[in-house]
Amino acid sequence: EAEQQFRDVIRVEPDSPVGYTFLARSLAEMGRVAEAWQVQRQARDYGADPEEVRMTAQRLRQLERQPSQVQ
After folding, report:
1. CB neighbour class for 3 (10 Å; exposed up to 12, middle 13-18, buried from 19)
2. Could you read off the pLDDT of 33-48 as tens digits, one per residue?
3. pLDDT at residue 71 is higher than 80
4. Which of 53, 28, 59, 27 is nearest to 41 (CA)?
């Protein structure tokens, strides 16, 4: 599972902006957008590439606008 892999990266390298960036993207795609925003802020705080921050934020905003799908 992608989420666990990125959490493992963060556990090994807790100040890795890449781990946080990809964890945020993974959470967002699973519909956990609020949690993804929190992780995205951590990526930014740890010095993630500004373009990666921008692209991830753009994707999070897109997902926020999508209607929730009830199963």
Report:
1. middle
2. 999 999 999 999 999 9
3. no
4. 53
CB burial of residue 41 (10 Å; 0-12, 13-18, 19+)? middle
Q: Look at residues 22, 23, 32 and name the one whose alpha carbon lies nearest to residue 68.
A: 32
Dihedral sign for Cα 49, 50, 53, 58, please.
negative
CA distance 27 to 69: 16
> What pTM does this model have?
0.87
Rounded distance, CA 30 to CA 39, Å?
A: 14
